[in-house]
Structures are given as C-alpha cells and as structure tokens.
Amino acid sequence: MSEIATPDLKQRPPRSARVRLGGFVILPRMLDKGRAELAGKNGEYHYNCPLDQHWVKFAGVNPDALLAELKMGKGDGEILEWITANSAHTLAAHEILAWSDYQDKRGPTDLEQREFYYDLHAQLAPHRKDLSSWFDVLDLDDFVSYGGKA
C-alpha cells in the first residue's frame, strides 16, 4: 500500500460533492474530510456532517468504521472495495446512479432548510440566479472561501 496524500483543507477545499467514486456522489468529499481530520488538517470541514450522512444512510456504511479504514492509509479504490464488502445494503449500479443524480440536483426541502439555503445563497452571491441545488451552493461556498469571486 502506497502513502496517500492527505489533503490540507486549511489550504484548499475537499473535492466537490459532485465528484463520484463507484458512482457515488459525496463519497470522495467525505474521504477527503476524513483523511484531513485524521491528520489535523480539516480546517472548517467536518467528517460525517449532515451532507455525509445522506451517503452513510444510503450506502449502509458505519462512518466510524470507514474512518478506521482511512486511518490505515487506504486509497480510494481500496476504500471502495471495503465499502462493497461491508455495506449493510446491496446496491445495484442503477440504484447508485439514480440516487447520485437525485443528490446532485437536490435543493432544500423543508422551511428550515430553505431559510438556511437562501441565507447562504444571499451571503455568497445574491446576484447569481443560476444556483438551484445544495451542490451548487456548496461548490460556490468552497470557491469563495478560498479567495474566488462569486
């Protein structure tokens, strides 16, 4: 097993929630945050946050057990193999694809989420009319947090 580079989330954001591993959105971002947390380089990011928990519930994976696998220095491919072997759910490729596509387009669903979403949108880029999903706002937040202009 080779040494895995640990992302320094004090210097740059984790991968976008849109990036896929094994067809899963959210997972690569969660892995970046887990590796960074283990190294004390997570900055403002949190492993197993509410976004991560959407993936955890769908995949049927224990986040503490996943973190233990990351601690062993496993790469993304090895982690994906571990997930396949240890998931509480057997998921077909079409189920993963449908879930990931839904997550990619998912917006706020209840009043509390809508208020948070719209407040964050207004704070980051009130002039942007093209933002419609959580991933849109999350990507923009990552970009602006590291010096980008909305």
Question: How does this structure look, described?
Answer:
- The protein has two domains: 1-105, no CATH class; 107-150, no CATH class.
- The protein contains seven helices and no strands.
- It has helices at residues 27-39, 50-59, 63-71, 76-86, 93-105, 111-124, 134-145.
- It is mainly alpha-helical and 150 residues long.
- Helix 6 (111-124) packs parallel to helix 7.
Low-confidence stretches: none
Would you tell me the structural class of the helices and strands? mainly alpha
- Rg, Å, rounded: 16 Å
What oligomeric state do these chains adopt?
Answer: single chain
**What is the distance, rounded to the nearest whole angstrom, between the alpha carbons of the first and last residues?**
40 Å
Rounded average pLDDT: 94
Which descriptor suits the 3D outline? globular
Give the helix level as a range of percent: 40-55%
Strand fraction band?
under 5%
Element-by-element helix/strand order: HHHHHHH
For the sheet with most strands, the description reads: none
Question: How many H/I helices?
Answer: 7
Total domain units:
2
How many β-strand runs? 0
Secondary-structure topology with pairs:
Blueprint: H1 27-39, H2 50-59, H3 63-71, H4 76-86, H5 93-105, H6 111-124, H7 134-145
Keywords summarizing the entry:
2 domains; mainly alpha; 150 residues
Short description:
The protein has 150 residues and is mainly alpha-helical. It has seven helices and no strands. The protein has helices spanning 27-39, 50-59, 63-71, 76-86, 93-105, 111-124, 134-145.
